[in-house]
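Hi there. Long-time user, first ticket. I'm pasting a complex I've been working with (about 599 residues overall). I'd like to know whether the download I got is complete or cut off, because the file seemed smaller than I expected. Thanks.
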Amino acid sequence: MAQQPQHQIIVPGEQPLYVTFQRYGKPATWLPLVVAFIALAVWYLLTRDNTNAFIVAPPLKVASQFLTSLGDGSLLANVGTTLSEIGIGLLFGVGSAFVLGCGIAKSKVLEQAIGPYAVGFQAVPIVAIAPVLIRFLGPGLLTNGMISAFVVFFPMLVSTIVGLRSVDPDLREMMRALKATPWQTFTRLELPAAMPILFGGLKISTILAVVGTVVGEAVSSQSGLGFLIYYARYTYDTSLVYVGIFTLTALALALYEIVARLERRTLRWQHAGH
Amino acid sequence: MRNSRWLKIISLTVLVLVISACGTPAANTPITLFLGYIPNVQFAPVYVAVERGYFKAAGIDVKLEHSFDETDGLTRIGTNQLQFGLVSGDQVVLARAKGAPVVYVFRWYQRFPVGVVVPADSSIVKPEDLAGKVVGVPAKYGASYVGLQALLSAVKLKESDLKEVKVIGFDTAPIVCGKQVEASVVYVANEPAQIEQKCFKVRVIKISDFANIVSNGLVTNEKTIADKPDLVRGMNSALAHGLADTIADPKAAYDISRKYVDKLAADDAVQMAVLTDSLDLWKTDRFGYSDPAAWKLTLDTLQSMGLVTDPVDLTKVFSNDYLSK
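Hi, the file is complete. Here it is re-exported in full:
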C-alpha cells in the first residue's frame, strides 16, 4: 500500500501530531472538480443571453469550437509546434543553466565574473529580447525555442547553484576522508543531494518554458498555440481564444505533472528512510 | 429669526451659482481617441486638429491614447468603454462579423497604405512576378496579410503560386536588407524610406494600384451614434479640418507633430518623407467618404481567406451619414 504524505505539527510540550490528507477523504481529488463546476456554472449564467459574445464566449460555444479544432487537426498541429519549441527551450535552457550553475557553484571567480550578467540578463523583459533574437536567428521553431530557453535559464541556474551548495559540510568532509575524487563527490554526493532543489527549478522552468514559447509565437510565428491565440484575437473569435488558452493551461499542467512524477520516481530513495 | 437669515444666505448662494452656471458655455465633451500605433508623424492630421482647436470648436476635449493593440482598442469601442478610435477597416469587418456593434464613420486613408517592397534591381516589377518567389509578411493575419491576399487575387494569383509566404515579424527592414526574402509586404508610407536609409534602393508595388480595399478610419459604436450623433459629426469635422490643413501645409503639420513624436528632429529627412508619402494616401475630393465598393472588396477578400464565415451586413459596418456637407 502506498505511503500517505504526512505533515508534522509540533505543539510545544506535546508529542508531534501527524496529519494526513486521507483523514479528510481525499479532498485533493474532488475539490478542484467542485471549483471547476462552480466556475462553469457562473460562466454559463453570465453568458447565456449571448450579448457581448465577442468579449466573453459562452462555454458551450467554446466546447463546440474545441471539438471543431480537434476534429480538423488544427489544434493538435498547433500543440505539436508549441511542444517542439518547449522541448528545444528546456533542452538548451536547462542544459546550459545546469552546466554554468555547476561551474559557478564550484568557482567563486566564475560567480563574480558571470553572476551579475546572469542576473542582469534575467531582468530584461522577454518581449524586448524576442524581436532581437528573431532578427539574428530568423523567425521559426528554433528561434521560439531559444526565446523559451532564455526564460528557462535563470531559475534553473539559481536552483543548480543553491542545490549544489546546500550539501551538508559533514558529508563533504566524509567524502574527503574517503579520498573520493571530485567527480565521485559530484556524482555520489552533490548531485543526489541537490536533486530536490534541481527538480524544484525544473518544475518552475517547465511552466516558464510554456510562457516563453507563447511570447515567441506571438512576435513571429505561423503555428503554435501562441499564434492560435493571437490569430483568434485578430479575428475576434473569442471562443477560439479560450480554446487556445485552455489548451495551453492543460499543456502546462501536464508537463508539470510529468516532471513532478519524474521527481517522485527519482527521489524515492529519500522517502525510503522514513 | 436666525433660521430665516441662514435661509436667505443659502438661497442667495444657490441663485448666484445658477446665474453663473447659465453664464458659462456648456462644458466640452471629454473623449479619448484611440490611435492604433505609437506616436508617429503619420498621425499629423490628428495632432493638427488638436493643436489648432478643431476638436474644441466641435465641443470636444480630446485625449489621445496611442497603442500597439488595435484589437484591444476596437473591443473597447465595441463595449463602449471607448467611443472613438482610428482603426483599420478589415478589423471593423472582422469585429462586426462576431457581433461587435462598431461602425466606421470616417475614411481617413483613401488608399490602402500597404505594398510589396523589392530591391530596386529585382526582377519583380509587377504583382504577377511574385509567382514562385519568397514573400515576407509581418504575420499571417492583419492588414498586411489581407492586403497581400487582395493583391494576389487582383492579378489572379493564389498564395500557393508563391514559393513561400514567410512570417518575418514586424521588424521588416533587417530581414529585407539581409535578403532573407525576395519581396516583403510593408507599410508604404514609412518602411520603404527606412529600408533605403538602412541598406539599398527599393521599388514598391502599391496594393492600392490594384485593389481598392478599406484602411484606417474613425470608428465609433452604435450607442454613441444613437445617443450623440452630433458628437460623431464633430469628431468627423475636426478630423477633416486636420487632414485638409496637413495636406495644404505639410511643413507646418510636421512642426506641430514635434510636440507629440519624440526625437523627430534626429530623423527629420526620413520622417518628412514619410509624411509627404502619406499625403497621397489621404487626398480625396470629399474627406471621410467611404466607397461602398471598397467595403465589398474588403469583405470578399476576408471571406475568401476564411477569416469571415459569419454573415455581415455591410450597411451596418460603415456610414457616410455623419460627414460634413
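A couple of notes from our side: Chain B touches chain A through 25 residues (CB under 8 Å). The mean pLDDT of chain B is 90.
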